[in-house]
Structure formats: structure tokens, C-alpha cells
Amino acid sequence: MAISAPLNTALRAFAMLLFVVAIAACSRTPNAMPTGVGNLGPGGGAPGSQQEFLVSVGDRVFFETDSSNLTPTAMATLDKQAAWLNQYSNYRIMIEGHADERGTREYNIALGARRASIVVNYLTSKGVNGQRITSQSFGKERPVAICNDISCWSQNRRAVTVVQ
């Protein structure tokens, strides 16, 4: 049995409307926490949790091309990291140094090491016990973005603080 074109169009429109209503109904959970991640509460996690550090403080700082100098934005993030780490002294951290894919492997390993070292030095200057910190350079071996463009390169020029 063939369905007429106007009826077919109406059925498709009705199906689309049902789909949109279903998606909209799922997008809001009654009594959900207004902030945070899931049911972790305001700030993105229980106070002193690794999740709180990641969401509320931030785990990475970025660098300019061929540079291991901290930008004002990076220093602001590291100030928040130092305050959190000084408050929750039970955690050890690893600072990972990274570079974008341009340049040789050896150059990028050395650049990543300089970036990690500058972050370690900054955190210790803010009172974080150096015995709690280790560092490692990954150079260009662990990109978070892959493309041949500044938008990817800028994401890969970073130092990441991993709470252990």
C-alpha cells in the first residue's frame, strides 16, 4: 500500500517532532545539581579530590612556539595549582612537558623538559614541597590535537600537572 506524499511528509514531521521532544526531555534532569560534574557537587568534585583539581583548578598551562617562558595566564593557573597543592599536601604530582610536532624528536624532548622544569620551579617557589613533584618530557609523542595547523600546535605546547 502506497502512502500519499502529503501524508508521508506529515508522518516524517511528526516523527521528527517526537524525536526533538524526546531529546529535550532527556537533556534536563529534575533536581540536578546546578554546577559541577554529575553528582559531584559545586566546583566539579569533592573538596580535595583529583576531580576538583581538574575541573576547578586546571591541570595544564600552555606555551608560545619554541618557548618555555610562562605567560601571565599560565602563571595564574599555576598559582591556583600551588594553592590547591599546598592545601591538600597528601598528593604527589607529575609534571608532563609536551611540544607540538614541529621540530626533531630530540629538540622537542628537550623543549618539553624545559617546560616541565619551569613549572616545577614555579610551583616550588609558591611553597609546594619539591619532594612531592616529579617531571617527565614527552616531547611531541603525546599530542592532544593532530592537524597541521596552529589550532592544534597551540594545544600541544603544554605542561600538564597529573595528580597522583
Automatic annotation (TrEMBL):
Known InterPro entries for this protein? Answer: Bact_OuterMem_StrucFunc, OMP_bac, OmpA-like, OMPA-like_CS, OmpA-like_sf, Pal, Pal_lipo_C
Q: Which residues are in coiled coils?
A: none
Q: Where is the OmpA-like domain?
A: 50-164
Q: Where is the signal peptide?
A: 1-24
Subcellular localization is given as: Cell outer membrane
Q: Does the keyword Endoplasmic reticulum apply?
A: no
Q: Which PROSITE patterns match?
A: OMPA_1 (PS01068), OMPA_2 (PS51123)
Mind listing the UniProt keywords for this protein, alphabetically?
Answer: Cell cycle, Cell division, Cell outer membrane, Lipoprotein, Membrane, Palmitate, Signal
Q: Which PANTHER family match?
A: LIPOPROTEIN YIAD-RELATED, STATOR ELEMENT OF FLAGELLAR MOTOR COMPLEX
General function of this protein: Part of the Tol-Pal system, which plays a role in outer membrane invagination during cell division and is important for maintaining outer membrane integrity.
Subunit structure and binding partners: The Tol-Pal system is composed of five core proteins: the inner membrane proteins TolA, TolQ and TolR, the periplasmic protein TolB and the outer membrane protein Pal. They form a network linking the inner and outer membranes and the peptidoglycan layer.
The entry assigns this protein to a family as follows: Belongs to the Pal lipoprotein family.
From the Swiss-Prot or TrEMBL record, give the protein name: Peptidoglycan-associated protein
State the organism's lineage.
Answer: Bacteria, Pseudomonadati, Pseudomonadota, Alphaproteobacteria, Hyphomicrobiales
The gene coding this protein: omp16
